[in-house]
Lipoprotein-anchoring transpeptidase ErfK/SrfK
Amino acid sequence: MGHAVGRRKGSIGIALITGVVLVGASACGGGGSDKASGGDAKASGKASVSASPSPTKPAGPPMLLDTITPQTGTTVGVAMPISVIFTNPVAAKARATVEKHMKVSASQPVAGAWHWMGDKRADWRPKAYWPSGTTVKIDADMKGVSNGNGRYGVHGYTHTFKIGDDVRADVSVTGHTMKVTRNGSPVRTLSINAGSAEYPTWNGTMAVIDKQEKVHMTSCSVGISCDKGSPNYYDLTLPWDVHLTQSGTYVHYSTGDPNPGSGSARGSHGCVHLSMADAKWFYGQVKQGDPITITGSPRAKAPADNGYADFNLGWDQWLAGSASGESTTATL
């Protein structure tokens, strides 16, 4: 259930420098294209402004980056991609050069590749999950680089982040369970309810986008129901919300399903429901980029760009969206 209303991360001053806010466009299980929208913050980085354009570079309007995720200095999960959103479209003919100017380095060698999701978003993900403890750096040196549409980069951007503990959650829709592991060892198995037949939960692996202690969720905002007399109408502020898709999938507690599990069999509008105690506990376990994998739902896998569901594409599919192909990280 739910639509996050007017969400922002941190103070606006911080957000404008280093933040990224993925703006949800739909509720738990809501319809629509489930396409990702861009961030509303600016990428951080070292801006270098020269007094006049270099004579060897054509002058033109700037090519700018809207956001780079993860934020610099953060610790993220093993399924977190590097996601770069451009302010303006990047032409197909320019993508190989742009990719080569977005250098990924790591403290241990990791094979991966860029993949374009439309013409404004490029994600770099490892072929398999990141090894825990890896330090990762992206150097997006865009100075003088063309986007193929008459714009040229004017800045370099650098983000450095770390891969934390390998925390995973595996949800069985039919079994009404969520198994949580940390660094390969089982931690707890929780009772859950997922989506109903009418509003099934997405299948597949979704890296956690973010989490909030409270989220205001409404059925009307996402086209499920605006009729207060409908059994599918809701207007609730619910606690312990772990955000899985931009279309509005969360793992959280719902007042309409306080004791989830096979005994209650209450279907959600697409979210994964936990009891209040379990939702609070799970909230404390997970971080951005931890993979939550859902199986047993009648729905397809979440589209790769619906949040950070990059691992829902097989490696061949991933490489098909890359202009420069597989590479191994530079040494950090």
